[in-house]
Design brief:
440 residues; mainly beta; Methylamine Dehydrogenase, Chain H; 9% helix; globular
């Protein structure tokens, strides 16, 4: 992946194209005759409930009637002008013939609430795994230098951990940096089973038990200059213990146990590793990165057992279906490809996004849905029971910091980074009976 240092976290690690896009977003939005009082009225933070959305309020609270452009016109402008980041030129234009024809109109999750009190942020423009739901009411996310917790029941936002100062482990484990770390810039994170693992821009790893004060473990995986931690994953090992994986730009994948935080395995690959995901039985690891092809490797010894061939650019996302046979990969060629472990000669489906790379993937725990997030504006929910031929499209404006399904699949959370309309969107799964709005 591209190595890009961050100078100011509050403006994230945007490349020039993304920064220009945000400036253009603001220039188009506001009328020339907008005075300061009107500007504050237009941009003031207001939450949106499902009941308000049904009455016509924009789900992000954008007051289109006071702006210089309609929502429909601005959507067309974004589709025409958004520039997808590619390492291989025109990779996103060469895949149209392969893509499955997918019907829009699915309605699997319905809008429930949007809070602008929550301000998700992004450190690196290619890494979008900074939102994690641990229940249908509890979400953890990164906001600048802080790990934050949002409760949708109490509507309370609280800081869990501040990375801006000095942090040091309160437990003693071999390999842990007892002197601690200072001003850690968080590039990726994962939360599961009451544990949080965060990866940093300089190869840092920080582990915390959410039920205990202090830090359990912190380390530097490498002191190489190109050291950014690209992805982390918490999972149950074949022995039943909790482990985590860290994928790094130094081309390494490291496995740690989460009892004593010992390094169990360190696998090296020919290229920077952007993402890994463990199969449901914890035996096979998908490895994707700065190469057109990905790998399937034995999780015990790191030996290659299969190749993933078909993408036209670098990949930054992967996910396993609960059946243990199907997995998905997301790429800068704007596609998500579905693979069957029993026949890797070609993907079973090629799904194309609207504007940009596929940056984040999540299968629902029951396997019925695949959530696909683009870098900005669009999240797609594919119906796997319909062979990925039907989808729901969630349409918003802003950079997507992460997407997460709750463990019971009842809630879907989407983090939006934007200078004005940063927020956390909540969608709830539709059932035969209608939801009762808790907020009106």
């Amino acid at each position: 992946m591209a190595y890009q240092r961050v100078d100011r976290l509050d403006y994230m690690s945007l490349d020039e194209e993304m920064a220009d896009s945000m400036d253009e977003f603001e220039e188009v939005f506001y009328r020339d005759d907008t005075n300061l009082d009107d500007f504050e009225l237009v941009t003031e933070g207001t939450d949106t409930s499902a009941a308000q959305a049904r009455k016509g309020k924009d789900i992000q609270g954008i007051p289109w009637d006071r702006l210089n452009i309609t929502r429909q016109s601005y959507r067309l402008t974004r589709l025409e002008q958004y520039r997808n980041y590619e390492n291989i030129p025109l990779s996103g234009e060469a895949v149209d013939k392969e893509c499955k024809q997918v019907k829009k109109g699915g309605n699997y999750y319905e809008f429930f609430y949007n809070t602008r009190l929550v301000k998700p942020t992004i450190l690196h423009f290619q890494l979008r795994n900074l939102v994690w739901a641990t229940s249908k009411h509890d979400v953890y996310l990164i906001s600048n230098y802080s790990l934050m917790h949002w409760s949708s029941i109490s509507q309370n936002l609280s800081e869990v951990l501040d990375f801006s100062g000095h942090i040091a482990p309160s437990e003693k484990h071999a390999g842990s940096l007892l002197e601690g770390l200072t001003q850690t810039q968080i590039s990726t994170m994962a939360v599961k089973n009451r544990f949080m693992v965060a990866g940093g821009f300089q190869g840092e790893l920080i582990c915390k038990c959410l039920d205990k004060p202090g830090i359990s473990f912190c380390a530097r995986t490498t002191y190489e200059e190109n050291a950014i931690t690209n992805a982390v994953e918490i999972y149950e090992s074949t022995s039943g213990g909790l482990h985590f994986l860290a994928a790094n730009n130094d081309s390494g994948v490291r496995e740690y146990d989460m009892e004593k935080f010992q390094l169990m395995n360190h696998f090296q690959f020919p290229w920077p590793v952007n993402h890994t995901s463990m199969s449901p039985d914890s035996k096979i690891l998908t490895v994707v990165g700065d190469d057109l092809n990905g790998l399937l490797v034995d999780s015990c010894n790191g030996k290659t057992i299969g190749s993933i061939v078909g993408h036209l650019d670098y990949s930054f996302a992967s996910a396993w279906h609960p059946d243990g046979r199907t997995f998905a990969t997301g790429n800068q060629d704007k596609t998500c490809r579905i693979w069957d472990l029993r026949n890797l000669s070609s993907p079973t489906a090629v799904l194309k996004g609207n504007m940009g790379a596929v940056r984040s993937l999540r299968y629902s725990s029951d396997g019925r849905f695949l959530v696909v997030a683009e870098p900005a504006d669009f999240v797609h929910i594919y119906n796997t029971d319909a062979d990925y031929q039907k989808r729901q499209e969630i349409d918003m404006f802003g950079e997507i910091s992460g997407v997460s399904l709750s463990p019971d699949d009842e809630s879907l959370y989407i983090g939006i980074w934007d200078r004005t309309y940063a927020s956390l969107l909540q969608y709830n799964r539709r059932h035969s009976s209608e939801y009762v709005d808790l907020f009106t």
